[in-house]
Design goal:
With about 290 residues, the chain is mostly helical. It contains 14 helices and three strands. A hairpin with a 4-residue loop joins strand 1 and strand 2. The radius of gyration is 24 Å and the shape is globular. It starts with 6 loop residues before the first helix and ends in a 17-residue tail after the last helix.
Length: about 290
């Protein structure tokens, strides 16, 4: 429960809309922080208060700023839709420029190092699911035995905004399915939350600890980036990769078509400042 007007109602409304617990928690946290730091109920803040609040957080990255802007827009749109506020202050605040992104996959050598590192069996299974099916950590955490159809073989995935999609299963994942329960959660929570699945944050921490111990840079999401980038490098067409990555827009998939580091380094390495053989050493007098 919060101490601000309508925030609790917004939280309930988001649950009814089947948004993920992580999304709801983050949105409520940011709106509550806005109210605390401005000293004003977040339902009543003015555009200039919002601008000053955002400007006071120079430590936020451009990506974080864009994310928080989106939370604010959704908050005020909801207030308007419920008849709780007439104006939308975000119209006067404006929209920050979305930073250009590029995938950051783990390298092949680091992935091999990670997979061969000693770890719990289920942690290894989670890592293989991430890099061979491209699932996000929150999606891995919610896998149930009932989601797997070995006759396909396919796996049903509960993705962003509660959207359910089926993904093809790699032969290694079929082998994993034979070792996991045919009913119930594959990655159950601990005794604090009996009968529930692991939280996405806990899954991320579990994989992240092994990555750190193995000396593998990046985050668990880098395994999903390896999945998308490697599919394209191995010749899969971009429409197929969009389906496998479950991107709603092909623009998201196009990020994975950026030239990877290896060809860049090879191209740079082929540069020859003495390609005109008749030239003298660099810096020699004419």
């Amino acid at each position: 429960m919060t101490n601000f007007m309508h925030v609790d109602d917004w939280q309930v409304w988001q649950h009814a809309s089947r948004l993920s617990e992580l999304t709801i928690t983050e949105r409520v946290r940011v709106i509550t922080q806005l109210g605390i730091e401005t000293g004003t109920d977040p339902a009543k803040v003015t555009p200039i208060q919002i601008v000053r609040w955002l400007a006071s957080h120079s430590e936020w990255s451009d990506s974080t700023m864009c994310t928080y802007h989106s939370y604010l827009r959704r908050w005020f749109k909801w207030l308007q839709a419920q008849g709780l506020r007439e104006d939308d202050p975000m119209v006067k605040v404006g929209t920050p420029r979305l930073p250009e992104r590029e995938p950051r996959p783990v390298s092949d050598i680091h992935l091999a190092k990670l997979i061969t590192t000693r770890m719990h069996k289920r942690t290894r299974f989670a890592i293989l699911i991430a890099c061979l099916a491209g699932l996000r950590v929150s999606e891995i955490a919610r896998i149930k035995g009932e989601d797997v159809d070995l006759s396909g073989p396919r796996m049903r995935v509960l993705g962003k905004r509660g959207k359910q999609q089926s993904v093809a299963m790699h032969p290694l994942l079929v082998d994993i399915a034979h070792q996991m329960p045919s009913r119930g959660w594959w990655f159950p929570a601990n005794s604090v939350r009996p009968g529930e699945h692991m939280l996405g944050k806990s899954m991320s921490q579990m994989i992240g600890r092994v990555m750190q111990r193995a000396g593998v840079p990046g985050t668990p999401h880098s395994l999903r980036h390896w999945f998308g980038t490697t599919l394209l490098l191995e010749g899969a067409d971009i429409r197929t990769v969009q389906e496998l990555m479950r991107h709603s827009s092909i623009a998201s998939t196009q990020l994975y078509t950026m030239v990877p580091d290896k060809p860049r380094h090879e191209a740079i390495g082929r540069l020859d400042p003495f390609r005109y053989k008749g030239s003298g050493p660099i810096g020699s007098a004419a």
